[in-house]
UniProtKB/TrEMBL annotation:
GO biological process: apoptotic process; regulation of apoptotic process
Keyword Iron-sulfur attached: no
Keyword Metal-binding: no
InterPro entries linked: CIDE-N_dom
Annotated source species: Nezara viridula (Southern green stink bug)
Keywords of this entry: Apoptosis
Origin organism lineage: Eukaryota, Metazoa, Ecdysozoa, Arthropoda, Hexapoda
Pfam families named in the record: CIDE-N
Ranges where the CIDE-N domain occurs: 5-81
Protein name: CIDE-N domain-containing protein
Cross-referenced PROSITE patterns: CIDE_N
Length: 184
């Protein structure tokens, strides 16, 4: 397929109920086509369906592999891991949605390393002072906040390193292709 024609992507809605494929040559093109298919208008955010990483730059978009699954979100929607229910208070500023998460972590704090990006962001953005009625141990809350922020940062750095490796690999592939063309 020629680059000017675009590459195939898979797109899902926030509930993962609608899924379709499309070909796009740019992020703008993808947003336009996907909004038409999902009957969305206005501002939308494109994220990786896998982990919720926002795709907001053409340069990053161009590094995505063919058939990457992307999700479109309206301003009132948030990414959540697959199969996870979306209670109305999940990201509520009062912290009620954190109660179950904090309860699970109190029983085994090691689970913090297994959490997805959305949950890690929720924990790293929490206000420990407002949660002492749920979890009276302020030291525990501070440690969870710090650990989740560190893990989230590490995951982002790892993703950035992978993105750089993909760019390097793509550049090498193009370079080798040009060498073989010149040799002929």
């Amino acid at each position: 397929m020629m680059e000017s024609e675009g590459y195939p992507y898979k797109v899902v809605d926030v509930g993962r109920e609608k899924k379709f494929g499309l070909v796009a040559c740019s992020l703008h093109d993808l947003v336009h086509r996907a909004c038409e298919k999902l009957n969305l208008s206005g501002n939308v955010k494109v994220v990786l369906e896998l982990d919720g990483t926002e795709v907001d730059e053409e340069e990053y978009f161009s590094t995505l592999e063919k058939n990457t699954i992307l999700m479109l979100l309206t301003p009132d929607q948030n990414w959540a891991p697959p199969g996870r229910k979306r209670p109305a208070d999940e990201t509520d500023a009062s912290g009620r949605g954190l109660e179950g998460l904090l309860s699970r972590l109190q029983s085994d704090i090691g689970h913090v390393s297994l959490l997805g990006g959305c949950e890690l962001e929720l924990l790293s953005d929490m206000d420990p002072d407002s949660l002492t009625d749920i979890v009276p141990d302020r030291v525990f809350l501070d440690q969870i906040k710090e650990a989740s922020g560190r893990i989230l940062s590490d995951k982002r750095q790892a993703q950035e390193a992978m993105d750089l490796l993909k760019l390097y690999h793509n550049a090498q592939t193009i370079k080798e292709g040009k060498k073989s063309t010149l040799a002929q």
